[in-house]
Structure formats: C-alpha cells, structure tokens
Amino acid sequence: MSCTIIVGGFFGDEGKGKVVAHIAYKDKPVIISRGGVGPNAGHTVQVGDHKYGVRMVPSGFVYKDAKLCIGSGVLVDPRVLKQEVEMLGVKGRVFVDKRCGIITEDHIARDKGSAHLAKKIGSTGSGCGPANSDRVMRLSPQAKDVPELAEYLLDVPKAIDDELKKNNSVLLEGTQGFGISLYYGTYPFVTSKDTSASQIAADNGVGPTKIDDVIVVFKAYPTRVGEGPFSTEMSLEKSDAMGIQEFGTVTHRQRRVGGWDGDMARYSSMINGCTQAALTGIDNVDKACFGATEYAKLTKKAKDFIKQAEEDIGSPVTIISTGPEVTQIIDLRDELA
C-alpha cells in the first residue's frame, strides 16, 4: 500500500478533481485528505451526467469507502463546509483537523474590500489571504475553537499515520497549481501559501519519508484565472476557435488559455519531485481522442504530444484524461510497475 500526493503542475484548473476521483476508485484509499489553501480553490468532478463543484470537501468524495479529511494546514470556512457536507450527503465521513485556521466574515470582507487583492491580484474574495495573514500573526481562531465544527474534529496526522502503519493506502490531494505558489509562482500574482507537493505533505502532517508517489497533473492547454504573467497565452479568439472555453469553479470568470509550456512543466516537475504525471485535455489536442479509454485508441498526433510532454516533464505520463467524465481516462500505472 502507499501514500500518494496529487498536485497541479501549472496554474490550477488542471483537472486534479477528476484525477483524484479516478485514483480513489482504482486504488481504494482508506483516507483521502486535502492540503492547500482553503475554499478559494474549486474542483469539478463529473460522474455520469452529474457535475459536482467542491471547495472544501476532498474531490475523492465520490469513492464512498474513504474517510474524507482536511489537513491542519488548510483554512476552513464553516459555512462552506457544512453546505457541502449536506449537498453531497457525506455526513459522518468528513473530518477536520482541530488545528485548521478558520475563515471569518471579517476575513471575507477584508479580502473583497482590498483594492490590491481584488483588483490587482485577482483574488477569489473567499477570505483566504486575510485569514492566512491573521494565522501568521497568531490571531486566527482554530477549528477546535468553533462549536459548530465539534462533530468533525480529528487529529488528521495521527489518523493518517495509523492507516499507513496498517499498510493501507492514503491519498493526499492538493489544490491550486504550482504557478500560483506563494514561493515558486508568478509573485505577487499568487495565492497566500505554497502549493507544491512538499507543502501538501506538511499540511497533512505526513513526513517526506512516508510519501511513495507524487503525481503532478498537467493540462495540454494550460489555463489561468485572474491576473498575472502567462507566457504561452493565446487570444480568446484563437482558444474559442479551438473549442476551448472554460470558467472558474469558484469565480465563474472565463479562464485564459495558453499553449503547452515545456519549460514550466520541467521546473514544476523538479520542485514537486514528480514521479508520475497525469495529462488532461488530450481531446483538445485531437478531438478524435475524445472518450478513449485505451492508449492504442489515441491518434499519432496525441501520442506525439504525450511523448514531448514526457521529455519536458522528465517522468512518465501514466494517466491521460480524454474528456470531463470520470471514466474517460487511460491509466497506464500498472504498465509502469
């Protein structure tokens, strides 16, 4: 059994939610625990005709045999959490580390009211920046201080360690993407903390020696929401003509679209310690690949693209997404073993 981290390799919106859901079904983890910033990141998971957008509950919620945890490094908005627990019907499966920082109404008001954050940086307005600022200043409440969260409280690092000692599988789910890491991204157009694999491990209290795999998710045509540099960005007219039109899960703003960035993929892979890569949106490279579930069914154009991506990333592409639905995927991990 193993402990696997899944993180985004570009600017977020790479399709991590779908990859997490697929791996959850396939690997059957006992715990799926998320790290990252907080409810400023939205993940979309499509199962059949049902599309779910989640901001607090881990994307692996669709695998019903796993405990769903939120690590101590994550900011929690109790209102968003309770709404999602009810909407998804996951009561009794969701646990919050007692040390999580809490987002208050004041944090949200300060986020939305800051011209610097709202206008220049392009913040989501979810209160994460001010909440992390108060956390650093040791002013922020913790989950254990909030009565309405009492039923969710857990020592998440201890729970994860207990399962790893039993040789059970654990999945650690990242949010956002490498390009908006506070440390390694396009500062100041970044989020309020690091988003790399090391941070996701730390957010969940899992030491580096206990991580077996780091799967970095890359998008064939990267996208970015909000302001900030985007070296391979194409015009909206061009991306629209290619049939690529996307909107942010949290902000509902139209995403900017760019071409494959090999240099960024290489650097992201290095910082994240990528052992395997997932590549999403291959159906945008060649529409003929839409819905394929076998590598042999991919076109030469798609296979050539994957080969180039592997050279850039420096690790094998073992998961290939061919459409939005969770079953529209090619999983080559068994061939790597």
Descriptive overview:
The protein has 337 residues and is of the alpha/beta class. It is built from twelve helices and 16 strands. It has helices spanning 16-27, 78-88, 105-113, 115-121, 128-136, 156-165, 197-203, 236-241, 262-272, 282-285, 300-313, 333-336, and strands at residues 3-8, 31-34, 43-47, 50-54, 67-70, 75-76, 94-97, 101-102, 153-154, 170-173, 213-219, 223-224, 256-257, 276-280, 317-321, 329-331. It has a ten-stranded mixed sheet, sandwiched between helices. Strands 3-4 form a two-stranded antiparallel sheet. A hairpin with a 7-residue loop joins strand 15 (317-321) and strand 16 (329-331). Helix 3 (105-113) crosses helix 5. The longest helix has 14 residues, at 300-313. The chain starts with a strand and ends with a helix.
Given helix and strand content, the structural type is alpha/beta
Distance between the termini: 13 Å
How helical, in percent, are the residues?
Answer: 25-40%
Report the uncertain regions. none
Largest sheet: 10 strands, mixed
Q: List the helices and strands in order.
A: EHEEEEEHEEHHHEHEHEEHEHEHHEEH
Shape: globular
Rg over alpha carbons: 19 Å
Overall mean confidence score, pLDDT: 94
Proportion in β-strands: 15-25%
Q: Enumerate how many helices there are, as a single number.
A: 12
- How do the strands line up in the largest sheet? 9-7-5-2-10-1-11-14-15-16
The total of beta strands comes to 16
